[in-house]
Amino acid sequence: MKKLSLFFSIFVFAFTLMCSVAFADETSVFDYYKNEDGTVTITGYKANDLNIVIPTEVDTYKVTAIGDNAFSGMERIEKITINADITSIGSSAFYGCTSLAEIEIPDTVTQIGEYAFGNCPLLTADIIPDSLQNKNDKLFSYHDDTDSNTASSDTESEADNTEDNTPIIVILVIVSAFSIVACGVCVWMFVKSKRNKR
What we know:
The protein is α/β, with parallel strands linked by helices. The protein folds into 2 domains: 1-27 and 165-198; 35-163, Leucine-rich repeat, LRR (right-handed beta-alpha superhelix). Helices cover 36% and strands 17% of the residues. The chain is built from 3 helices and 9 strands, in the order αβββββββββαα. The protein has helices at 2-24, 148-163, 166-197; strands spanning 30-34, 40-45, 51-54, 57-58, 61-66, 79-82, 88-89, 102-104, 111-112. Strands 1, 2, 4, 5, 7 and 9 form a 6-stranded mixed sheet that branches. Strand 4 (57-58) and strand 5 (61-66) form a beta hairpin. Helix 1 (2-24) packs antiparallel against helix 3 (166-197). It starts with a helix and ends with a helix. The relative contact order is 0.14.
């Protein structure tokens, strides 16, 4: 029985370790790049939530911008809340978010790129804060023929986001297989110890 207890303890430790490794790289659901001033710009989103809050920090870095095409083509998103440290929203940032009906943009935002809310039929111009400095008439426009490259990159961005969870799924399958084998060994050792006692 001591051997069985020891094996079970090792199994629990190994399982916990593997789970922590599996989720170690999933601390943030946001992709980003670092700016020269030490802040970050959000460039993508790896989860499937309908309501998204742009955080004030990602991995201890202050978030100050939403990049070009960051959420482009994510048709399921219904609501976006942007933190008060954001100062700019990139071109086509939310292009094609056809279910997006509500977005809270703070007055700290002074720059919004072209087509940022293009093909977002549920949004209206009253979402734009008075603080905006670069007012233009293309915020809600559709891409024209000259923007086909941008439009195609939007589609690629969405495809990339759907594949981001593949490594974690593979690891979880491996962990599950390991658990099944370990449980089988535990049962086998238990039965064997019972037979030896006879």
